[in-house]
Amino acid sequence: MFSYVSAEQRVPPTHPLRAIRQLVDEVLREMSAEFEGLYSRIGRPSIPPERLLRAQLLQLFYSIRSERLLMEQLDYNLLFRWFVGMDMDEPVWNHSVFAKNRDRLLTQAVARSFFDHVVDRARPLMSDEHFTVDGTLIEAWASHKSFQPKDGPPDGDGTDFRGQRRSNETHASTTDPDARLYRKSHNSESRLAYLGHLLIDNRQGLIADAMATQADGSAERDAALAFAVDQHERAPARRRTYGADKGYDTHGCVQDLRTFNVTPHVSQNHARRGGSAIDGRTTRHRGYAQSQHARPRIEPAFGWLKCVALLRKVKLRGLGNVDRLLVFASAAFNLLRLPKLLARPA
């Protein structure tokens, strides 16, 4: 006799997505009031925001490079259907409908709220004093051919730049105006890009904050200050330490961080004009060496975001969309690690 087996029964009890879905369900229940205002009650029914969020998480977890492929997976993959909350015989959405609903419903505010709820669950495991900050290059979805003069005729066919002076002051991308021509080091080529910034705790390597900015020489230091201001507003009396590389070793950055009760454990850059802003009053403490030792823990987060979550070359245009994706992907990174950390004995 035929017996019906649900998609949930087909998922092994030890599958890692079970623990992740439990965390996601708790977060989405807390955000239900926010979703009430997003879901339209008139016209053709839209995709529920909860399902959009779950589907977007699957796209990040499994490195699915397009919405078309994601819908194809949802059509036959029972694990995906169970995680999203779809019945076994429920029809999937059209990929363009999914993309339009995602862009309408999953705004920067929703992505930030989802990330904050995930961080609230991770906070008992995280350090509230010792952090590491760093930035990485996120290549924009725009080519050098689109980098044309703001005022004046285009530069030929956009394939030969020899002898031309091209800068962000005189040129802009016609494809993605928010992208900036930027190079990470003196030995690398310039690219149209954004910068992604992370703040991780030094205890577990979980992401405590994230943001994307336009690419310029001071963006990393400005982001570190923005993280410090946000943490200072939540707990003004708490003193914190920020580990960082030599790019943050400027007198202005160090002084600004100290203003917001942050001790900058920044690598010294003795080659900088005027000398390093970090002196023996900071380096003589054992905590400085410990922060420098913990600083590489931020690299696995960047590696996962750029290789697995496909943020090396982002396929969205506009600073708001890039920031939304980076913040949401940072929440996905924490969700992957939380079940293992919560299962450890106290």
Structural overview:
This protein is α/β, with parallel strands linked by helices and 346 residues long. The protein has two domains: 100 residues, no CATH class; 178 residues, Nucleotidyltransferase, domain 5 (2-Layer Sandwich), CATH 3.30.420. It is 44% helix and 14% strand. The chain is built from 14 helices and eight strands. Strands 1, 4, 5, 6, 7 and 8 form a six-stranded mixed beta sheet that branches. It has a two-stranded antiparallel sheet with strand order 2-3. Strand 5 and strand 6 form a beta hairpin. It is globular, with a radius of gyration of 23 Å. It starts with 6 loop residues before the first helix and ends with a helix. The model has no long low-confidence stretch (mean pLDDT 88).
Work out the helicity level: 40-55%
What series of H and E elements makes up the topology? HHHHHHHHEEEEEEHEHEHHHH
Instruction: Write down the Rg.
Output: 23 Å
The count of helical stretches stands at 14
Overall 3D shape: globular
Number of strands: 8
| Mean model confidence by pLDDT | 88
Q: Main sheet?
A: 6 strands, mixed
Give the helix/strand class: alpha/beta
CATH architecture of the largest domain: 2-Layer Sandwich
| Name of the CATH first level of the largest domain | Alpha Beta
Predict the CATH topology of the largest domain: Nucleotidyltransferase, domain 5
- State which percent range the strand residues make up: 5-15%
Report the span from N to C terminus: 48 Å
Low-confidence stretches: none
Number of domains: 2
